[in-house]
Amino acid sequence: MLVNMVVAAPPVIGVLALQGDVQEHLVSLAQCDVTARPVRRAEELDELDGIVIPGGESTTISKLLDNFELLEPLRAKIKAGFPAYGSCAGMILLANDVLDGRDDQHQLGGLDITVRRNAFGRQVDSFETDLDLAGENVHAVFIRAPWVEAVSGEVEVLATVPITAEAGDAAGRIVAVRQGNVLATAFHPELTGDERVHRLFVDMVRGSTGSEEK
Ligand SMILES: NC(=O)CC[C@H](N)C(=O)O
Fold first, then answer.
1. Where is L-glutamine bound in this sequence (predicted)?
2. Average pLDDT of the residues of the chain
3. Binding residue per annotation — 117?
4. ipTM over cut 0.90
């Protein structure tokens, strides 16, 4: 008797490899039973089920997206529902609106949020805190991070900075969001060896129509 068995191939997730902490995201994804690969060319996008936009410098990445002719194709794919996850600079690039950005900074868009670049201020360029991310306790590392200043009704808030005396202006600020197939964190789970945020993204990729069609 012939048994018709369909074995699902692991999803293929790209990491935008123009600048930033690409390697750390590749390592985190590799822990999540997916095929992870660096991506630099528009043709490579069609082989993917989802993409990670790493932390780094959003103005530099945005300029390189333009130079590598990736800006328009990636923007169009994300608009059509392609799963994307951005950490820090990646969150800035996925936001529809940026405060304190540069005039020539391009947005990929996808998240109906307003982010403020370098929001945590010069005196606290980097800080770490434990926070609640959708019911899980996560140790979050912020490095010259943005925060989310406004969200539309479509956006799910996944995490805020705990309200403590040391948090100052950052207390209660939104630092992780999801809208449809787009996920973003102002912090860097790729730096703490905790792959739960990447797993959340992989689950989004597995659940998206795009990966079923592939
Ligand atoms: N760690 C980061 O990704 C920093 C983001 C950076 N400050 C920017 O504006 O792009």
1. 56-58, 117, 143-144
2. 93
3. yes
4. yes
